[in-house]
Fold BadF/BadG/BcrA/BcrD ATPase family protein.
Amino acid sequence: MSFVIGVDAGGTSTRAIAVDAAGTVLGTGRSGGANPNSHSPSIAVAHLAEAIEGCLSGLNVQEANACVVGMAGSSKLTDPAVAELFDATWQRLGLGEVQVRTDPEVAFASATSAPDGTVLVAGTGSIAGRIRKRRLVATAGGYGWLLGDEGSAFWLGREAVRATLDALAARRELGELARSVLAEAEVETDDPLLAWQQLITVANAEAPIRLARFAPLVSTAADAGPILDRAADLLAGLAREAREPGEDTPVVLVGSVLAGPVGERVRAKLAGLDVLTSTDGVLGAAWLAAVEAYGEGAVRPAPPAPAP
């Protein structure tokens, strides 16, 4: 029985599925983040291997016709040492040639079979891309947490922490967002200066990407509107920057940030365009693998049934 493998490797989680020619999901696997820019390459490949091995449970890897890995941070594989590490992992797993595709390509394919368009990704990181023949040909953003990731979960979390620090430094009355940030950081003191010091310590004690854990607080706090508005402005700007003038193709929104109030604001700012939404990049990776194996008529995979 032939099948293909699709993998969605993000900054915080990795999912893999095995899909047969009829689009039926045969197996699923999950692990931690596998973005080699946010994690060490050795950790990234370990998480990838765990997810792929999970989806292959009970299957013969020799019957896999194609494997597409959509990877945030795929640019890291331009480093020969990192590429060698990933190649060794594919060989150990018994896979043939593995296509590593950018996460915008996989994200776009997860929502539409159209060959051309624009994709806007806002999860842990953010990027917009121009898609031509299902390949990424131009980008806006996507520089990673240190240089960009505007409007992403990292950006939202960082802005939430900064707003809290500003309020503490100015000794202003703390609003809902600031109180939620302090609770999430387990800072428990009524002394503004001590709380300020402790929050800085907590934020700097973890990997920078961990600031994304504060992002959900922005989506629910009643006083977080300005941050949400700014995130939407930045993300909609990335989408427009990636498009050509007068382009009449779909815009695909993908990622946890765009599934909430930021996404609603972005849709309003892109009114008049054909805006689609996808929340499952692993299906895009699997379909691209199916196209590689079975041609343009490949069946789009159905979402796997939820666990009982």
Summary: The CA atoms of residues 187 and 229 lie 27 Å apart. The first strand starts at residue 3 and ends at 9. The mean pLDDT is 92.
